[in-house]
Protein backbone atom coordinates (compact mmCIF):
# COMPACT_ATOMS: atom_id res chain seq x y z
CA UNK A 1 0.00 0.00 0.00
CA UNK A 2 1.18 3.52 -0.78
CA UNK A 3 -0.60 6.23 1.32
CA UNK A 4 -0.98 4.75 4.80
CA UNK A 5 -1.76 5.52 8.43
CA UNK A 6 -0.07 4.00 11.46
CA UNK A 7 -0.45 4.09 15.23
CA UNK A 8 2.53 5.47 17.12
CA UNK A 9 2.66 5.39 20.92
CA UNK A 10 5.10 7.32 23.07
CA UNK A 11 5.28 4.91 26.02
CA UNK A 12 5.23 5.99 29.70
CA UNK A 13 9.04 6.18 29.82
CA UNK A 14 9.11 8.61 26.90
CA UNK A 15 6.38 10.81 28.38
CA UNK A 16 8.00 10.78 31.82
CA UNK A 17 11.40 11.73 30.39
CA UNK A 18 9.91 14.67 28.53
CA UNK A 19 10.62 13.26 25.06
CA UNK A 20 7.17 13.73 23.46
CA UNK A 21 8.26 16.87 21.63
CA UNK A 22 11.51 15.40 20.30
CA UNK A 23 9.76 12.25 19.10
CA UNK A 24 6.99 14.19 17.35
CA UNK A 25 9.62 16.48 15.81
CA UNK A 26 11.48 13.47 14.37
CA UNK A 27 8.27 12.11 12.86
CA UNK A 28 7.49 15.50 11.29
CA UNK A 29 11.09 16.10 10.19
CA UNK A 30 10.94 12.89 8.17
CA UNK A 31 7.89 14.31 6.40
CA UNK A 32 5.05 12.38 8.01
CA UNK A 33 1.91 14.14 9.19
CA UNK A 34 0.43 13.75 12.67
CA UNK A 35 -3.36 13.88 12.26
CA UNK A 36 -4.63 12.74 15.66
CA UNK A 37 -3.20 13.10 19.17
CA UNK A 38 -4.35 11.73 22.53
CA UNK A 39 -2.62 11.63 25.93
CA UNK A 40 -4.06 9.16 28.42
CA UNK A 41 -3.20 6.34 30.78
CA UNK A 42 -4.50 3.26 28.93
CA UNK A 43 -6.83 0.80 30.63
CA UNK A 44 -5.86 -2.79 31.23
CA UNK A 45 -8.60 -3.86 28.76
CA UNK A 46 -7.20 -1.67 25.98
CA UNK A 47 -3.68 -2.98 26.55
CA UNK A 48 -4.80 -6.63 26.62
CA UNK A 49 -6.30 -6.19 23.16
CA UNK A 50 -3.43 -4.06 21.88
CA UNK A 51 -0.84 -6.66 22.93
CA UNK A 52 -2.94 -9.82 22.38
CA UNK A 53 -0.27 -11.35 20.08
CA UNK A 54 2.09 -11.46 23.09
CA UNK A 55 -0.30 -13.10 25.58
CA UNK A 56 1.41 -15.97 27.41
CA UNK A 57 4.95 -14.74 26.77
CA UNK A 58 7.12 -14.15 29.87
CA UNK A 59 7.28 -10.39 29.27
CA UNK A 60 3.50 -9.98 28.76
CA UNK A 61 2.46 -9.18 32.37
CA UNK A 62 5.38 -6.82 33.09
CA UNK A 63 4.70 -5.14 29.73
CA UNK A 64 1.05 -4.47 30.60
CA UNK A 65 2.05 -3.28 34.06
CA UNK A 66 4.58 -0.87 32.58
CA UNK A 67 2.28 0.40 29.82
CA UNK A 68 -0.47 1.23 32.32
CA UNK A 69 1.93 2.91 34.77
CA UNK A 70 1.37 6.42 33.40
CA UNK A 71 0.23 8.53 30.47
CA UNK A 72 0.88 7.32 26.93
CA UNK A 73 0.83 9.64 23.91
CA UNK A 74 -1.10 8.07 21.03
CA UNK A 75 -0.56 9.49 17.55
CA UNK A 76 -2.16 8.76 14.21
CA UNK A 77 0.59 9.32 11.66
CA UNK A 78 0.09 9.46 7.90
CA UNK A 79 2.28 9.23 4.83
CA UNK A 80 3.38 6.97 2.01
CA UNK A 81 4.75 3.69 3.45
CA UNK A 82 4.60 5.21 6.94
CA UNK A 83 4.17 1.82 8.67
CA UNK A 84 7.53 0.60 7.42
CA UNK A 85 9.03 4.08 7.65
CA UNK A 86 8.17 4.64 11.28
CA UNK A 87 9.43 1.15 12.26
CA UNK A 88 12.71 2.09 10.63
CA UNK A 89 12.77 5.46 12.43
CA UNK A 90 12.02 3.74 15.78
CA UNK A 91 14.87 1.23 15.47
CA UNK A 92 15.31 -2.25 16.92
CA UNK A 93 13.18 -3.37 19.88
CA UNK A 94 16.18 -3.45 22.24
CA UNK A 95 17.30 0.19 22.69
CA UNK A 96 20.79 -0.87 23.74
CA UNK A 97 21.52 -2.18 20.25
CA UNK A 98 19.11 -0.04 18.21
CA UNK A 99 21.14 1.82 15.57
CA UNK A 100 22.27 5.37 16.27
CA UNK A 101 20.08 7.72 14.27
CA UNK A 102 16.90 5.93 15.35
CA UNK A 103 14.59 7.08 18.16
CA UNK A 104 15.39 4.07 20.33
CA UNK A 105 19.09 4.14 19.42
CA UNK A 106 19.57 7.84 20.14
CA UNK A 107 17.22 8.36 23.09
CA UNK A 108 16.98 4.94 24.75
CA UNK A 109 19.06 2.52 26.78
CA UNK A 110 18.68 -0.36 29.26
CA UNK A 111 17.28 0.93 32.55
CA UNK A 112 17.49 -2.39 34.37
CA UNK A 113 17.40 -5.84 32.88
CA UNK A 114 14.86 -5.73 30.07
CA UNK A 115 13.88 -3.97 26.88
CA UNK A 116 10.37 -2.83 27.71
CA UNK A 117 11.33 0.82 28.27
CA UNK A 118 11.97 1.39 24.58
CA UNK A 119 10.11 4.69 24.23
CA UNK A 120 7.82 4.03 21.28
CA UNK A 121 5.44 1.62 19.63
CA UNK A 122 4.66 1.50 15.91
CA UNK A 123 2.16 -0.76 14.15
CA UNK A 124 3.91 -3.53 12.22
CA UNK A 125 1.50 -4.15 9.29
CA UNK A 126 -1.50 -2.61 7.53
CA UNK A 127 -3.72 -5.07 9.38
CA UNK A 128 -2.36 -4.16 12.83
CA UNK A 129 -2.39 -0.45 11.98
CA UNK A 130 -6.11 -0.60 11.18
CA UNK A 131 -6.83 -2.64 14.26
CA UNK A 132 -4.72 -0.47 16.60
CA UNK A 133 -6.00 2.86 15.23
CA UNK A 134 -9.54 1.60 15.81
CA UNK A 135 -8.65 0.61 19.36
CA UNK A 136 -6.98 3.87 20.36
CA UNK A 137 -9.03 6.37 18.36
CA UNK A 138 -12.33 4.55 17.81
P1 LIG B 1 8.25 -3.96 18.91
O1 LIG B 1 7.78 -2.97 19.94
O2 LIG B 1 9.62 -3.61 18.41
O3 LIG B 1 7.25 -4.20 17.82
P2 LIG B 1 7.46 -6.56 19.97
O4 LIG B 1 6.14 -6.36 19.27
O5 LIG B 1 8.19 -7.83 19.69
O6 LIG B 1 8.46 -5.35 19.67
O7 LIG B 1 7.23 -6.50 21.54
C1 LIG B 1 6.36 -5.55 22.11
C2 LIG B 1 7.01 -4.92 23.29
O8 LIG B 1 7.22 -5.90 24.30
C3 LIG B 1 8.41 -4.35 23.01
O9 LIG B 1 8.34 -3.03 22.52
C4 LIG B 1 9.06 -4.42 24.35
C5 LIG B 1 8.45 -5.68 24.96
N1 LIG B 1 9.32 -6.84 24.73
C6 LIG B 1 9.53 -7.51 23.59
N2 LIG B 1 10.38 -8.52 23.74
C7 LIG B 1 10.74 -8.49 25.04
C8 LIG B 1 11.61 -9.27 25.86
N3 LIG B 1 12.29 -10.31 25.34
N4 LIG B 1 11.75 -8.93 27.16
C9 LIG B 1 11.07 -7.89 27.69
N5 LIG B 1 10.24 -7.12 26.99
C10 LIG B 1 10.08 -7.41 25.68
MG1 LIG C 1 5.32 -5.07 17.90
TrEMBL record:
Keywords per UniProt: Kinase, Nucleotide metabolism, Transferase
Enzyme Commission number(s) of this protein: 2.7.4.6
CDD domains: NDPk_I
InterPro entries attached to this UniProt entry: NDK-like_dom (IPR034907), NDK-like_dom_sf (IPR036850), Nucleoside_diP_kinase (IPR001564)
SMART domains, A to Z: NDK
Domain of life: Bacteria
UniProt keyword Transferase present: yes
Catalytic-site annotation from UniProt: 121
Cofactor names: Mg(2+)
Domain Nucleoside diphosphate kinase-like, residue spans: 3-138
Annotated ATP binding sites: 11, 59, 87, 93, 104, 118
Gene Ontology terms for molecular function: kinase activity
Family membership: Belongs to the NDK family.
PANTHER family in the cross-refs: NUCLEOSIDE DIPHOSPHATE KINASE (PTHR11349)
Protein name as catalogued: nucleoside-diphosphate kinase
Taxon lineage: Bacteria, Bacillati, Actinomycetota, Actinomycetes, Micrococcales
